[in-house]
Amino acid sequence: MQDRQKGLLLTAFGVLVLSPDALVLRWLAADAMQILAWRGLLMAVGLGLLLAWRYRGELPAAARRCGWTGLGCALCYCVSTIGFVQAISLAGAANTLLILSIAPLIAAALAWIFLGERLALRTLLAILICVGGVLLIVADRSPGNSLAGNAWALAAATLLAGNFTLARSRPAVDMSPSLVPGALLVSLLGFLFGGHPALSVPQWAGLAFMAGLLLPLAFTLIQLGPRWISGTEVGLLLLLEVVLGPLWVWWLLGEAPSRQVLLGGGLIFLTLCGHSLLGWRRAAPQPG
To answer: Which of 34, 81, 158, 235 is 20–30 Å from 123 (CA)?
Structure first.
């Protein structure tokens, strides 16, 4: 198998593994902070085990290399995770994932502002169009739509973009060890402000399976992708979650998005696809 094929398969499989996350959160139907208490703890344990297997005895050194930038990544991960779970609880899967999908464009704007990276005209246009799509979603007045939930989703997208930007500021250093203290901070805040959720045995099993196994595995696989394929291709594959996440919830829980949310989401999705495909073509090596 060629390296590029390996990268595509690993990334695509990671996104598929990640896609039921919104479904599990909606199915639990518990207080967001209570879910975060155990989700963060299980995520920290699962990711810590994966990192220990990956680095063996070098894990403490890998964690120290993250430095202050890693601390920033941990804080961004913490707040973005809280925002994501709160948004899923208040606004539903479709709104949350569609708004969260603009995080790569926000990251491009942050890299332009703070890292001095060039902002392509197509990226600027894509940001403006996606802002229009987000406004359509936020302005929806259908039952079940929540302005607070949409605000949490936008905050999650912005902090996720901040995480991307910080990691990009030190490309030679693997920042994944910083996710462990970030997840532990999520858990601590969850226990302080939420407490212990009242879940059934099947719900506990679902939470443990998703947060302790699937999430660490998914993030590890997605992180490996850029070793063999471009960031543009990774971003294009991540759009699968925007499609699959709401479909899981729609199919199994009957939570259908409104027409206005579908319109705004379609505008965002088509814009991101077009932007990614243009970036892919420009990044492709020229023959001869």
So the answer is: 81
What's the CA gap between 272 and 182, in Å, rounded? 28
Q: How far apart are CA 37 and CA 188, in angstroms?
A: 6
What per-residue confidence (pLDDT) applies to 34? 93
Separation between Cα atoms, residue 234 and residue 169, nearest integer Å: 19
| CA angle, 96 then 68 then 100, to 5° | 10
CB 149 within 8 A of CB 82: no
Distance (Å, rounded) from C-alpha 283 to C-alpha 71?
32
Residue (of 133, 40, 54, 47) closest to 94 by Cα position: 133
Exposed (0-12), middle (13-18) or buried (19+): which is 224, by Cβ within 10 Å?
middle
For residues 206-222, give the mean pLDDT.
Answer: 89
Q: Which two tokens stand for residue 196?
A: 């212990």
At residue 102, what is the residue type?
I
- The arithmetic mean of pLDDT across residues 212-237, rounded, is 73
Helix axes 259-283, 121-139, angle to 10 degrees: 170
| Residue-level pLDDT at 137 | 86
Q: What are phi and psi of 220, to 5 degrees?
A: -65, -45
